[in-house]
Write a structure and sequence with these properties.
163 residues; mainly alpha; TIM Barrel; 3-stranded parallel beta sheet; globular
């Protein structure tokens, strides 16, 4: 990014970023914070994983690109399910969905914004309501720690898929 900034202003970076996929925090986020560059997270719900809609025994069709997502495979997937179980009471306490909780956590991070996909208008409206969630700093830290149940076991490869 420093090299690219020599040739023009950088306004934003669009990395994969979610509670369960946080490589940007290790490399580019400090530069973005220091240089007032927006982080526009794609896959902020980890391809639907952070919605809680996939059961622990869910198997993705091999034709579904999620079948190759590292978060949706093996031990990573089981750790994600454990983390989701710990997040559910927090979401319940705040009368919000897991997705809204995860999106609020993300947009509370430095320089972070989210591109949250929606398949229909109800999902878009629900995603927008994540801005209404109110969490204390302690709760944000608790959610952060829960997310690390997953992220602390990932390798340093910034590519989310096993192609």
């Amino acid at each position: 990014m420093k090299e690219a900034a020599k040739y023009g202003r950088i306004d934003s970076l669009q990395p994969p970023y979610s509670l369960f996929w946080r490589q940007v925090e290790k490399d580019a986020m400090p530069y973005c914070v220091e240089n007032n560059i927006s982080i526009i997270a794609y896959s902020p719900l980890a391809q639907g994983l952070l919605t809680g809609k996939f059961a622990a025994d869910h198997k993705f069709d091999p034709q579904d690109n999620r079948a190759k997502n590292k978060l949706l495979q093996g031990e990573n997937y089981q750790r994600a399910q454990q983390a989701l179980d710990k997040l559910r009471p927090i979401a319940h306490r705040h009368n919000c969905t897991l997705a809204q909780l995860a999106l609020f956590w993300l947009i509370a991070q430095p320089q972070a914004n989210a591109i949250a996909g929606a398949r229909h208008s109800e999902q878009a409206i629900a995603n927008a309501k994540s801005a209404d969630v109110k969490l204390s700093e302690n709760e944000l830290q608790e959610i952060d720690a829960i997310g690390r149940i997953v992220t602390d076991h990932l390798d340093d490869n910034s590519v989310m898929w096993n192609w």
